[in-house]
Input
Amino acid sequence: MTDSAGGPDLTKGGGGPQDDTPGGGPLVVVENVNKHFGDLHVLRDINLTVQRGEVVVVIGPSGSGKSTLCRSINRLEPIDSGKILIDGRELPKEGKELARLRSDVGMVFQSFNLFAHKTILENVTLGPVKVRKQDKQASEKHAMELLERVGIANQAHKYPAQLSGGQQQRVAIARSLAMKPKVMLFDEPTSALDPEMINEVLDVMTSLAREGMTMIVVTHEMGFARKAAQKVVFMADGQIVESNTPEEFFTNPQTERAQDFLSKILTH
Amino acid sequence: MNELFNFTEVFDNLDKILSGFWATIRLASVTAVLALIIGTVLVSFRVSPTPVLRGVGTVVVNVLRNTPLTLVALLCVSGLSDVLKVTFSDTPSVNGYWWAVTALSVYTGAFVSEALRSGVNTVPLGQAEAARSIGLTFGQSLRMIILPQAFRAVIGPLGSVLIAMIKNTTIVAAVAYGVDAVSEMKIMFFDLGASLPIFIGFAIGYLILTLPAGFFFGWLAKRMAVAR
Ligand SMILES: Nc1ncnc2c1ncn2[C@@H]1O[C@H](COP(=O)(O)OP(=O)(O)OP(=O)(O)O)[C@@H](O)[C@H]1O
Ligand SMILES: [Mg+2]
Output
């Protein structure tokens, strides 16, 4: 059902917003970013660079700021200081311009967050039609291709509540992809899923990665990290403590924090 | 004793009773539309990201909700219309009608807004974030994602608000307009003497308006429920 062979190419589709990008240079730059929630210093001097087509896995203990980092990158959370550049441009503060640029950054949430009163197809076409002002029919055609690609095409006219968690999450991925984003953020996309549904979502993500989508993925799925990621970033207490290739990180963690954390998740 | 249950009076005056209720229906239906619009605007203020709008929404809703409708209507008629000469029309009955509608729809709008706000709270925050992350503006996500689900969640309570509004037409009519079912009843009592059958006839008339409305909203609430 999640077989991805031979689907339409998702990341280099013609007519997308990436056609007018300056090209060259890293796609995401996070520079000296700090963020507080009241007294709590959640992000401490975060620096992170993500190249085009690169897949970065973010890993770390609960409360270390992984979600906050993701949410800052598409400005669901404002930051206190520092800079975040997407394709060389800083996201504007608020308003219409932000809304438009934000759609270049796709986001997939732990809890799927599909629009409950809209069909699967409507969930996927809403952004292209209302934000990108694309033709409705063309959007539906593209949406069906994407749904085909994530294995949900035959459910297009159902409502989210009628689908399993794994199916809903694949729809959420299709909904993000429909905006032809430059980069996709995944915040623990499989941790709300029953074990037997995890792989169907990871398969979709792995093939996305293979097709060259730039991705930042918060996950503890080491298999995915090893298979799909070029870089693993380990966060603890709001800081990036370690950054390495998956192989190096998992077999030979440098810091005590990382060793400690890995020993805990490996025993499970 | 026979007098008490002699309903011929009701049937003899059916045309007057019906025209009274027709006035009530005209008042209530225009008010319902306006109250829903006003309530939607007020709740949009109350959940807006702009602190000033939120403040304005909160103050307006709380003042309206906590002021007796009679006072709101009197303020409109005596204060705005009679003293300040803010009028809708030179024809007194038309002016009275629109001030009655205004008073009742603004007052009811505050209750609609509160009902909708509890509906907004039933929509998971994540859906609003997902809407923002695909690039919808706040207004778009309110209009396309949040309010449609909020409305469906509170159709039952909204029905109660609108039924209360139908009954409240008697108050604004008494203060501002003088034409509705109860006004008609008072005129009939004046002409024919107070009579229990006529009173019962009018009471049943209100039930005929409100009971089906209640059933309708109950049915609609079930039909429109959003599965989660
Ligand atoms: N809206 C908020 N208001 C106040 N504190 C918050 C808020 N969101 C997160 N926090 C706090 O910020 C810290 C970092 O949270 P964050 O969600 O980024 O961690 P995380 O690494 O994603 O954790 P998890 O693995 O549990 O998802 C936590 O201590 C959390 O309690
Ligand atoms: Mg998190």
Chain A touches chain B at residues 74, 76, 94-96, 99-100, 102-103, 105-107, 109, 111-117, 126-127, 130-132, 159, 161-162, 172, 175-176, 179 (CB under 8 Å). Confidence is low (pLDDT under 50) at residues 1-21 of chain A. The pocket of adenosine-5'-triphosphate (ligand 1) is lined by residues A 37, 40, 42, 60, 62-68 (CB under 6 Å).
